[in-house]
Structure formats: C-alpha cells, structure tokens
C-alpha cells in the first residue's frame, strides 16, 4: 500500500532541495526571506487580492528548479524520477535561436498538471537538454567527444530509477521506499566535489558556458531554485537595497496597473563556487566556477491562444519601437517602452481580458444566483452580466522562452560561439521529437489551458440545463477599449 502519495514526495523533495541549495548558495535564503516578507505584507493588506492566483500556502511553498542534462537517456531517466512525484513534461522551448544570445539547448518543464495537484504543491523543474549534434555550435569532432564523455557517465543510480518506476506504477511509495528515494534523488542534484577535467571544461566553455556546465562534468546539479513573490518590483528594490546586484531587467511583461499576466522573472548572479580541477598532468587543484544563480518570479494569468499571439505582437511592437528610438539617438529603456505599449494596448481588468478572449479563465455557476424563474441566457457574456456565472483566472504555470534565454544569458560571462553565416543549419527539434525521446506525451501549455476552460463551460452548461454556451465575439478592436 502506498503511504506516501506522489504529491507528498514532490513537496518533500522541494523542501530538501531548498535546504541543500540554501546551504550551497546562501543568497538564496535571503531571496526566500525577502519574498516571504513581501508576500506576508500583501496578504495582511488585502487577503482577497493576495490569494487571487493561488492560496497563501501554495505561493509560500512554491518553487521551480532548473537542471541541465546531456543525452536522451538522461532525459528519459529524469522524466522517470519526476513521474514518480506526479511531474509531467509540459511545453517545448527551443533556445538555440534565442535573443539576446543563442543557448545550445532545448527545454521542457516537468510539473504537476491537474488543479488539485498544483494546489497541493506546484513544484516544477525547467529541464534543458544539450543539442550535441547541432553544427552551429559543435563540429563533428567535438560532437563525437561529447557523446563519448556523456555516454561514460551515469547521473542516476539504478536503485533510484527502480524505486521511481515502481512508485509510478503503484501510484505512490511505501514509507521506507519514499525515504530512500528522496535521499537518492536529492543527492543526485547536489553539487559534486569530484574534480573537473580543466582542459575539457575550458574547451567546451569556449563555445558555451552552458555546454561546459552540462558536458564538462560527470554529474548534474540544480542550477537555481526559484521562489514566487507577489510583487516582483518591490522584491527587486529590496534585494538591491541589501547589496545584492540584480540583472538589469525584469523579464516578461512590464510593470503596470492591470492584472498580473503570464510570468515575470528576475535574477542575480551567484558568487563563484569552490570546485576542484584536474590538470593535464594529473594534479588536482582548487578553483572556482560561477555557474549558478538566484532567480525569483511572479506568476500571472495564463493567456488564451488569441492572447498569446497578441502578447507576441506586443513584444515585437516593443522591440520595434525601442530599435527606432535608439536609432534616433534616444537612450530609451526596454521596460519603459514596454510600459507605454501596454498602457496603450492592454485591457486593464480581468473582465475586459475575458471579454476579448485574451486571458484564460474557468467559469463557475454562482451559488447564490437569482432564482426568480428566469431562464439563463445561452451566451457567456449574458451569463456573466446577469450574475449567473463567475470567472476564475487560470494561473500561468509554464515558462517563456524569451525570458528563459534572458535569464540564461544575463548569468553568463561570455558570448556563445555560434556559426551564423546561414550556411550551417541547426538540427531539427520540436515537441514531437521531444515526446519520442521521452517516450511520454508532452503537453502543450496553451492547449491545456483551453481544455480547462472548455471543461468548465461544459459543466456550467450542464448545471444550468443549457445545450451549449455561445461566445459572442467582441467587435471592438483592442487598444481602443480604454475606460
Ligand atoms: C534555465 C534558465 C531559464 C527560467 O526560469 O526561465 C529559467 C537554466 O539556467 O538552466 O530558469
Ligand atoms: Ni528559472
């Protein structure tokens, strides 16, 4: 019988990683303390607003981790370990063409999917896989050496994989198995003290620090662990005030006075960490690597498919205006330009975002709706206006490729060496490739939000005895909808 359910193992794993990471990177503890302080203040000020996108318990415990691995086998193995804790692959992110600089990886996130599972503990891990056969980064010789190196290491002990497989099929762990699993899983993501082959590491580092961090060492490690904060601008100020230098910008949507949307993230470069190195003549020497960092995030409402296209247009519009202002000699900052674009174009209330089908909501029948014998209207706007149903925002549980690339690169010292003369093309990778490599389905985030929304509308229709609910399209163009 399972006495430890997947979510309990997930919550315990997140706590253990947090303890380890706090010991390894003390500034992480400061980050967690400042985030908790701000969250508690906002809860005291306005509990309803503070808990609009998740209970206080959930938000306080919420973390995401990031790991980087090298082969499809390693990817299948981590997927097995995470599956035992109810974490499944969601999303495909290709960072090889990213701005501000290419990173030779593709990524996904392992996370809980169902609402109840997310509410119990939303721990997720952004997982990046090195693309060793991408000729824009690695020539044939280096690919071969990388593959040989990666094939000769093993990141996860067979006992861990075995426990994970059994727990996945049983739907949980026995108490002793859970303990053993958590010990082994936590140890697998700790920073190793094994000496790093200096020449090999430097060879990869000349191409990309991320490639060296993955393919230059014989183990993996948690790269960062990210708490969630309810006011990221305030957090940024308080961290600076404590003397911790943050990266220049908060990634994602700008600060503004409407509802939080998607995801905003920022980070600081961690200090150099002590590592040992093996020299070409076989000596072991002390040294340092500066690879890991601290990150924090604020989560907002998920967007619909229409909303996501529209968001990408806002980003493009911001880039365009910024480039032309800079060309004209202005020293405009991206964040300021983005704020202007948003002020002009983004509806400022949840109701408007829902009416324009931009943000994602689920709908619930109002328990104390008027029961005066009137028939409910069969369209969503009518149901909302008449007080028959209410909308609850769906939290964005995923990542943004551009922000991920921004976070990656602002924490790297050197540029990535990439062949960009157009003659060398990259290896094809997409979500289908990832699903095949994993031998597990990879969920598409936006489709998932759409399904949640549709299911809730179906329940509303059933409860109100409607055969279908129509969604009248809103004719007013967005941007002219200012209150
Ligand atoms: C991952 C960087 C991206 C995020 O939250 O978008 C990331 C890494 O550094 O391995 O963490
Ligand atoms: Ni991250």
Explained architecture:
- By secondary structure, the protein is of the alpha+beta class.
- It has 2 domains: 3-300 and 397-443, 2,3-Dihydroxybiphenyl 1,2-Dioxygenase, domain 1 (Roll); 305-392 and 452-464, no CATH class.
- Helix content is 45%, strand content 14%.
- The protein has helices at residues 6-24, 26-45, 47-50, 56-61, 72-83, 115-120, 140-151, 158-170, 175-188, 198-205, 209-215, 232-241, 305-327, 334-345, 350-355, 380-385, 401-410, 431-438, 445-464, and strands at residues 63-69, 88-94, 105-111, 124-130, 196-197, 224-227, 263-269, 273-278, 284-289, 293-299, 361-365, 389-393.
- Strands 2-3-4-1-6 form a 5-stranded mixed β-sheet.
- The longest helix has 23 residues, at 305-327.
- The radius of gyration is 24 Å and the shape is globular.
- It binds 2-oxoadipic acid and nickel (II) ion.
- Residues 64, 66, 126, 224, 226, 295, 407 line the site of nickel (II) ion.
């Amino acid at each position: 019988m399972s006495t430890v359910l997947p979510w309990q193992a997930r919550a315990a794993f997140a706590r253990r990683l947090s303890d380890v990471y706090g010991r390894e990177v003390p500034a992480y503890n400061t980050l967690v303390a400042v985030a908790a302080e701000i969250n508690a203040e906002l809860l005291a000020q306005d509990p309803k607003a503070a808990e609009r996108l998740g209970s206080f318990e959930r938000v306080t415990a919420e973390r995401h981790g990031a790991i980087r691995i090298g082969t499809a086998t390693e990817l299948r193995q981590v997927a097995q370990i995470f599956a035992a804790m109810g974490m499944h692959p969601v999303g495909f992110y290709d960072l090889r063409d990213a701005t501000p600089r290419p990173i030779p990886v593709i990524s996904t996130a392992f996370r809980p999917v169902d609402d109840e599972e997310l509410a119990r503990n939303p721990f997720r891990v952004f997982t990046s896989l090195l693309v060793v056969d991408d000729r824009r980064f690695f020539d044939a010789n280096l690919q071969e050496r990388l593959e040989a190196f990666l094939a000769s290491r093993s990141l996860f002990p067979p006992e861990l994989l075995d426990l994970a497989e059994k727990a996945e099929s049983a739907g949980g762990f026995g108490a002793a198995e859970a303990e053993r699993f958590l010990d082994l899983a936590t140890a697998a993501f700790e920073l190793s003290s094994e000496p790093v082959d200096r020449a090999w590491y430097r060879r990869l580092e000349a191409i990309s620090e991320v490639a060296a961090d993955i393919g230059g060492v014989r183990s993996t490690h948690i790269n960062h662990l990210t708490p969630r904060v309810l006011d990221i601008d305030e957090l940024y100020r308080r961290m600076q005030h404590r003397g911790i230098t943050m990266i220049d910008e908060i990634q994602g949507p700008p600060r503004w006075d409407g509802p939080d949307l998607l995801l905003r993230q920022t980070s600081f470069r961690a200090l150099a960490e002590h590592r040992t190195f093996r020299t070409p003549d076989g000596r072991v020497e002390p040294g340092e690597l500066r690879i890991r960092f601290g990150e924090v995030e604020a989560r907002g409402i998920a967007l619909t498919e229409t909303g996501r296209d529209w968001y990408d247009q806002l980003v493009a519009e911001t880039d365009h205006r910024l480039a032309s202002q800079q060309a004209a000699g202005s020293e405009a900052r991206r964040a300021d330009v983005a704020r202007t674009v948003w002020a002009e174009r983004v509806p400022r209330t949840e109701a408007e975002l829902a009416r324009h089908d931009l943000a994602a909501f689920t709908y619930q029948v109002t328990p104390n709706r008027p029961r005066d014998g009137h028939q409910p209207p069969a369209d969503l706007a009518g149901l909302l206006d008449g007080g028959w149903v209410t909308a609850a925002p769906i939290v964005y549980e995923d990542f943004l490729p551009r922000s991920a690339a921004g976070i990656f690169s602002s924490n790297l010292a050197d540029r990535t060496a990439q062949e960009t003369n157009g003659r060398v093309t990259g290896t094809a990778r997409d979500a289908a490739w990832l699903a095949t490599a994993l031998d597990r389905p990879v969920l598409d985030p936006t489709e998932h939000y759409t399904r949640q929304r549709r299911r809730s509308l179906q329940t509303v229709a059933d409860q109100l005895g409607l055969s279908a609910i129509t969604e009248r399209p809103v004719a007013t163009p967005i941007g002219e909808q200012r209150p």
